[in-house]
Amino acid sequence: MDRRKISLCFIVNCDYNSVGGAMTRFRAEVDYFSSKGYDVHVIYSSRGTEKSSRRGGVNYYNLRHIRYLQILYQTRLFFKCLKLHHYNPLLLFIAHEPISSIPASFLRLLGIHPKTILVMHGPMAIETYLRGHKKAAMVFSIVDQIAFSLAGKIVAVSEYERNYALSLKTNPGKIAIIRNGIEFPRLEAHSTFRQEMGIPQDRVTIGYIGSVAGYRGTEFLMKAFSIAKRTTEKPLALVLVFREELTERQKRRINEYTGSDQDVYISRPKRDVSPVLSTLDIYASHFSKEIDGIGYSIMEAMSSGLPVITGKDEITNRLLKDGFDASLVNKEDPNQIAVAIKKLAENPSLRHRIGNNAKKTALDEFSRAHMLALCEKEYLGEISH
Length: 385
Known about the structure:
Elements: E1 7-11, H1 21-35, E2 39-44, E3 53-55, E4 58-62, H2 70-87, E5 91-95, H3 98-105, E6 115-120, H4 124-130, H5 134-150, E7 153-156, H6 159-167, E8 175-177, H7 193-197, E9 204-210, H8 218-231, E10 236-242, H9 248-258, E11 264-267, H10 274-279, E12 282-285, H11 296-303, E13 308-311, H12 314-319, E14 327-329, H13 334-345, H14 348-365, H15 368-384
Parallel strand pairs: 1-2, 1-5, 2-4, 5-6, 6-7, 7-8, 9-10, 9-12, 10-11, 12-13, 13-14
Antiparallel strand pairs: 3-4
Helix pairs in contact: 1-15, 2-3, 3-5, 4-5, 8-13, 11-14
């Protein structure tokens, strides 16, 4: 099939420059397909004032200030998809969130049969429910059901997303799993992050990068850190890099969990996590029972050669091996997490061995090149149907 005749339209109702695993994958797919000579279009929504443009062979369309007015956004997106499809019937729409996949799928109401793929990241319905907003979660769930039924194909980034789609009675035959791939961070031999944060050189650093939301289980890590400090003579430091700005309430809760410990260092959001990972000795994440599997930050940490402490669950147990490429603990158990911290902190050779194995696992299973090759095969397969 001639690549020059194939058009790919990537859609997301979010600022193109947003930080996070979903947007990192989104941009990686855009860059990959444009570099291989495909005709690539990007539709996104931004609060900024940038206009539609063509950069690096890619057409960017910004539906400015529309994402908070969903009906208007959906209408404008529908007509934008219609226009693009008119100019190239051999067009595949790839939406990276359920609500953005619906307008493209609705083209069939005009007798058009668009090719649509929905890339399924962490379900907003579940995350909203876990934040305590049950009515909003129900709305998201209804939107998801509509999107899943209309999409030609669903690409889930893990078994967690696939299981959610199946719980909404989605046809299992239209779901494929292609995990998020990572670009290996460029570690810095002399990172300035430790100095900027004021972390003493003798500290063994345990780090977390991600959301402060309760369902991520960071409170169990903070409690475990306080326990570990009391049970080891090794000087420790906990480094927390949150993707959101902390509210006063969240700051108070962190102080409650850590006892206002002076060895807890909290950083602002980072687009480039390489300086942070270069500073860490241990990475720890995903200790809540609410969410299964390993996240993007864990894969990044593993690719950096860091030993990872994370919670056991059905998905994680299939991907990682306790004592070989990770330290697996019972979820929501600060005492067991503390034991794992103490064991790794006191044994540099063990950290080195598990970290090396983790890096090999990441290279074999979680590389971005592997993910993009699978995406290309899946997307072209959908076009050829």
